Amino acid sequence: MNNESSKIGIFGINVYSERLIKEFKNISKIFVSDPKDKIFKGINVESIENIEEEIDLLIVCSGGRINTSIKLCKKYIKNKNILLKHYFELINQKLIDTEDHSIVMNENFLIEYKKEFENFDKVYDYLADKKSKFLYKKLIEFRNNLDIKCIKDLDHLEDKQYFEEFINLGKHPLFIDIGAFDGYTSLEFSKKYKNYSHIYSFEPEPINFILTKKNLSTLERIDIIQKIVSNKKGKGNLSHSGSNSKVDLLGEREIEVTTIDKEIDLIKNKKNFTGILLKCDTEGFEKSVLEGASDFIKKYKPILAISCYHNPRQMWEIPLILKSMIPSSKMYIRHYTESIYETVCFLIPDSI
Question: Which residue has the higher pLDDT, 256 or 254?
Fold first, then answer.
């Protein structure tokens, strides 16, 4: 691949394309679907529509919409003598050093799987339907070997995230949105359940909090709370990275920390509701959130929708924590992207 006479093109701009630029000297162009900049790291950026046969190899670097990106690139290199590879294929086929090219949120997955395969198997056995078992198996296979054939059936479904057919909340449900980002999921909840009881929307990151308040400004019966949700009250630090902002001891912003057990008292606040949906996506800190919500969960038995994709351990640990909290329940796995991101574990208490 480092043959000076061959010319490499890259599709996409992200951490993976940056790695390739550092490693290979014969990358001549970067292609994207909608160019915002003309130059990136000293290399010309063009629309994929303009790709020509001067490129010998096109490497697709998309981390999220893998299938969509490959399909788009195939469209524009059709009838051209250009070899197409995805970045993950290069790792899978050992064409680049796997240690230098680890996948974000998938670091050391094979080590974790070999160590905890019995726990992975427990989760698989708990899953309530064929779709959950299929998704869980395929995601584990892909995380293990980065063979993109394993995810060929995955679609980009983030606009439908959290609202599944097996969720029954009645006419006046209550929603707890932990990690609201810009308020999108809370807003969608309000549209789906127009007679909702109340919404608690937690978003600690200052810019995201402002966006959430703006986007949810027309809603009634809602508390928008700028606090970190964890397993104990106090002060915490937050590192800023848009939708990936997370708790970080070295972070630049100090934010108040709370727990669901301390923050939400439905009896004191006289909330009437037909069901509760508790959603949590806190960039890897879901376990701490659950620890600080254990009394609430055991008392009210909400439907739980908890992200479990931010690191390899979460794939088995989060589902088993949920099952231990409400043993009499059904567990589902749903996935909302064309890669390893946005895997959600749902727990539906049998009492609902």
Answer: 256
Q: What is the DSSP string of 48-97?
A: GGG--TT-SEEEE--SS-HHHHHHHHHHHHTTS--EEEEHHHHHHTTSS-
Checking if the pLDDT of 251 tops 60, the result is: no
* Contact (Cβ atoms closer than 8 angstroms) between residue 260 and residue 235: no
**Distance of alpha carbon 72 from alpha carbon 67, whole angstroms:** 9
The reported pTM is 0.92
> How confident is the prediction for the chain on average, in pLDDT?
93
For the chain, the C-alpha Rg in angstroms (whole number) is 22
- Decide if 8-92 and 117-349 have a common fold: yes
Convert the pLDDT of each residue in 47-64 to its tens digit: 999 999 889 999 999 999
So where are the chain's domains? 8-92, 117-349
Which parts of 204-290 are beta strand (E)? 222-225, 228-229, 234-239, 246-247, 253-258, 276-280
Backbone angles phi, psi at 6, to 5 degrees: -90, 145
Which CATH fold would you assign to the domain 117-349? Rossmann fold (3.40.50)
CATH second-level architecture of 8-92? 3-Layer(aba) Sandwich (3.40)
